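Handover notes (outgoing to incoming on-call)

Open items:
1. Glutamine--fructose-6-phosphate aminotransferase [isomerizing]: sequence verified, structure written out, both below. Nothing else pending on this one.
2. Nothing else urgent.
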Amino acid sequence: MCGIVGYVGSQSALEVVLAGLRRLEYRGYDSAGVAVLADGGIAAAKKSGKLVNLEKALVDQPLPAGAAGIGHTRWATHGGPTDANAHPHLDNAGRVAVVHNGIIENFAELRAELAARGHVLGSETDTEVVAHLLAEECSGGADLAAAMRLVCRRLNGAFTLVAVHADAPDVVVGARRDSPLVVGVGEGEAFLASDVAAFIAHTRSAIELGQDQVVEVRRDGGAGGAGGVGVVVTDFDGRPADVRHFRVDWDAAAAEKGGHASFMHKEIAEQPRAVADTLLGRIGADGELLLDELRIPAAELREVDKVVVVACGTAFHAGLIAKYAIEHWTRIPCEVEPASEFRHRDPILDARTLVVAVSQSGETMDTLMALRHAREQGSRVLAICNTNGSTIPRESDAVLYTHAGPEVAVASTKAFLTQLVACYLVALYLGQVRGTKWGDEIQGVVRDLAGIAGAVERVLADMEPVRALARSLAGAGTVLFLGRHVGYPVALEGALKLKELAYMHAEGFAAGELKHGPIALVEEGLPVVVVVPSPRGRSVLHDKIVSNIQEIRARGARTIVIAEEGDETVLPCADHVVWVPVTPTLLQPLVTTVPLQVFACELAVARGNEVDQPRNLAKSVTVE
Ligand code: F6R
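Glutamine--fructose-6-phosphate aminotransferase [isomerizing] structure tokens:
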């Protein structure tokens, strides 16, 4: 939530910061602002609403280019999305400017303290106190980095802060606690940003910051100079800190729309590739599954007696599907819980519990807090994550990276499919080390997984009828989704996508639960999407769901059935059929989810909504 950019170098700081904000706007789009250091002072502009409002304002009232600057795109927490609450925030003398992501929990007491000392605070935000505190420390003789360290020690909560001072025109300082910040190092220039997308057009060389660290980037000087730019990282007490350098393995084109109408459209289309990439290099010459990054010794995995998956939203749905595979292939009990609920119920955890934290961004605060709790109880934590350099993998015992590439649209699509693939790999690996699956069985499933990319491609090639259907439902008030077995979480995911994109009432149910209440919702013309299990798998479930479809149709529902190619038993009870290729039962979600993504995307467009940036949402939810 909230996108932050800082820049120092030889290019126009204003242009670089604005371009970075464009790439980070998916993180929050309630307001945007920039500040540049120029002519011995700070020039700032900020506007409520999307970035385009700020860009228009800058055409009317241009700012100097500057060699250093900061910018922010906001997802409001404290104070509504007004111009006054937009970042950057400046101190009363206008010498310090700061942008912030996160929540400063003790801001009320700091604000009262500052007011008592004569400071005038003009916004309702928690952030503004930081600008005033930094200004006080600097006027007491500290340089900006030292001031940042002193101030951070006084803050409670989660924060990424990036600040500039008019007296230090070649310096940008950042700090982080429980909120993301990465450093990009180019030739004679450096970047601070919430994620690498902000600077990938300039450099792929990045530094991951640790918890409670302050970074100073300084042009022409500083320790460890890199092409005329020094990067110095310390902890909050000023001690030099260890940092990890990494190279971003995707390029700027990956973060562009590439001719698609929206990022979501593009990311749906990228799924065959994302699935294939996540499988790359996983099978060794001897046919063994290789998960080298896993780093948890096989002996320990053999001792695991419970798996707990924690995740939020779409990633939680991936966890729900993982449970079927983990329990079936390993016979280890698996619990799945929304990360936001997990630690508050005092879950039973010990050294034999393997906690799997699934997160695209690697920054979701609820998931981070859940994994910290699990580690405190002595459990091992394995992260499944799409974002190198993010907090969740860094704080986990092991990580399996999905290789979806950057996911920019707020609604998760390709990350979900790759999370599923990663979950299947973890389940198979557990089966391998524990001996509950034979090698040839594992290779068989991996072969099936390898075939999924082609199957998804086939689904995508035939989506026009789904789009037309979605357009025809633009006026509907409610859509229900039903599924059974692994199709049940798919139904939940279909409903979530529709809610967040089309702003429609949508609910997912286990089809067997229908008769226990939800069937009362069914009335003439109600669209109901049903994900039908393969007739070749648990055929008893298949037959039962066909009966469920008949029950709702008899009550007037308009039935939209997603069924396996060749399953003609659904024809008599389906108003519309979406065929998906034949896949093994447990892998079916990899194909059945795709039409639901397309359906939600098209319906949202038909209703005039912006699919990449749905209202009230943000990608990367870094507050609890
Ligand atoms: C829905 C969606 C969200 C995320 C959730 C977790 O389309 O994108 O529900 O799945 O906020 O995010 P990550 O995976 O980044 O932890």
